[in-house]
Amino acid sequence: MSEDVTYADYLRLPELLALQVPLADGVDDELLFIAVHQVQELWFGQLLRDLSGVRDRMLEGDPRAARAGLVRSTVITRALIAGIHPLRGMPPREFHAFRGALGGSSGAQSAQYLEIAALCGADWVRGEHGARAVAGLSPLERERARGRLAEPTVWEAFVSLLAKAGFAVGTAQERREAFGRLAAAPRDGDPVEFAELSELVEALVDHDEIWTEWRACHALLVERQIGGRPGTGGSSGVAHLRAAVHRRFYPELWEARDAGIPPAPAR
């Protein structure tokens, strides 16, 4: 690196700070609102790179490296949650002072969030719901989202790892039985990859759980700011966000949390 490169040069700080452009006049908290959401999108971009790597490591048959990537992704998502918290200090009157400047924009139009969901394999970004979400994007964003939908997903890559380890994975019931086997106490002669796959299952659940926390934090913040009013972009506001809180990227793992647990003794 050239000795002439400064901290501001490397981070392109003049260009970065110039991107915070409030649209309302005389409302200081609009800058805070912009900064928080820009930082969220920067982290989304990093998560897309990391989760693509997680998917690729699984496809290559490396559960240990995939787990390490998932752990980092979970830590980053915790940073996303912490990054929302500054907006708790913005009174509703301050938000409503510039809310009109947002026009038809809405967090539901975050193309990168939709890409993350598609990359993980979420079924709720496909079909009719996914078509509506993609329709609100720019042509370039729609092209990227459709590209993600055509890629192998984190979930598909995980199922491929199970198959490589010798598990039957053709049906949901077969996968549930595989999860139960991985959750059970180890047996003599179990291959080492069983332990690695078991740890990977927990990392996937951790990753899914932290996104539930992020969605809940977002819903609470919106309720704190607008109460029961409709949201921007034509959404129903808090009702829409509450309904989305418990969406899952990997629902089969949650449905199988009791797999491998011995049945309760009969009384």
From TrEMBL:
Q: Which is an annotated Pfam family here?
A: Trp_dioxygenase
Does this entry carry the keyword Coiled coil? no
Q: Which SUPFAM superfamilies match?
A: Indolic compounds 2,3-dioxygenase-like
What's its EC? 1.13.11.11
Write the record's keywords in alphabetical order, separated by commas. Dioxygenase, Oxidoreductase
| Record GO terms (molecular function) | heme binding; L-tryptophan 2,3-dioxygenase activity; metal ion binding
Q: Which InterPro entries match?
A: Trp/Indoleamine_2_3_dOase-like (IPR037217), Trp_2_3_dOase (IPR004981)
The GO annotation for biological process reads: L-tryptophan catabolic process to acetyl-CoA; L-tryptophan catabolic process to kynurenine
Q: Which PANTHER family match?
A: TRYPTOPHAN 2,3-DIOXYGENASE
Q: What is this protein called?
A: Tryptophan 2,3-dioxygenase
| Source organism per UniProt | Streptomyces lavendulae subsp. lavendulae
